[in-house]
Design brief:
Layout lengths: L3 H7 L26 H15 L11 E3 L8 E3 H12 L42 E5 L3 E8 L12 H9 L2 E6 L4 H12 L13 H13 L12 H15 L8 H11 L3 E6 L1 H9 L3 H14 L3 H13 L3 H8 L6 H22 L4 E8 L9 H7 L5 E2 L3
Parallel strand pairs: 4-7, 5-6, 5-7
Antiparallel strand pairs: 1-2, 3-4, 3-8
Helix pairs in contact: 2-3, 3-5, 5-9, 6-10, 7-10, 13-14
Length: 392
Amino acid sequence: MKYAVQKFCGCFGESASKGQAEIGVFPLFFSPLCLWQPHIQPLFDKMRNYWDSVYKCRINRSVLSHPLLPFGLSIEMEHLQMMRRWFSSLFFLPVLLGLAACQAEPPQSSGQNAPPVTESLTIPDDPDPALWVVKDEDTTIYLFGTIHILKPGLSWFDEAVKDAFDESEELVVEMVQPDPATMVKIVNDLAIDKTGVSLRDKLSEEDRADYEAAMASLNLPVDRFDPFEPWFASISMSLIPLMESGYTTGSGVEDALTSRAKAQNKRIVGLETPEQQLGFFDKLPEDVQIRFLNFNVDTISEMPDGMENMIAHWSNANIGALAELMNAGLEEKIVYETLLSNRNANWAIWVEERMKEPGTVFMAVGAGHLAGDDSLQEQLKKRNILVERVKY
């Protein structure tokens, strides 16, 4: 396989327009599933009870019985806390703007900021990710592209990024995390398949065999995600090899910025709701979800090396290469528009409206949204809003 992304693109046929930006968008950057494996087992045991329609609700001080969970499913508080952490970054769609991004070999880039494809990039000791600014006489909005999952110890929060953040009174992120009970309800409503058809029964014989082999390679029971929709299984599987390689959402950009914003009493605003973000995936046609799942199955072992390469481009502010790497693989129009271009267009409207109010804002969204032909910057240019790169 030359590039896994090419294999993935091929599954959509030749109907996709060559002019469309390529983006592989399934949230890879989700909370560390593998770190809570001992707690996840009983949680999934409970969800399998739903699958068998054998829920029995027991109420005591250690149990939260949510009336909106199916048949009164009870979630022990420790499991609820785990679930909140596990799904916390599930709502941060972009960075991975690329299952495809997490491949060991990047596709060739024509971006002027991209290094030659043969060049071996490394993550520098002092990363300097790209930063942009939009300003008028009384309003300043900084635009910063984030990586939702990183290894501990990467020192990206300094120099111009820190200065811009400290100057801002308001932090804007893609989504403000909800409380645990709300999270459980949203996931229950959207991730559990209500049709009664097992996930594995939706796969072809060949795809099912590959899927079960991948689950075994991850030391997961093959029936672990049977009650869930394909997009949820795809996301969950993606986490494990990354977490085993040392990545954590606790070290990700959003967590760091949110913690600092709270410590400095900054206002924190979400561009989207949890329901909207998960809904983007839930509303994708099932055949598209299955193709994403099959792609993940085929490339699961390549994700750590690909993630390392992607972070290296982000750290070195190689915008052209980052655009192709993070936005590679998604050529189907409905997915491209749902997960990238429409959202960027909506965020451009938000920026335009926010520019009417005085103040300084630090806007942090997935790096894939700030790269490529339909980036947020390009959407702002269509509205005659000047975006400048901050040099540092």
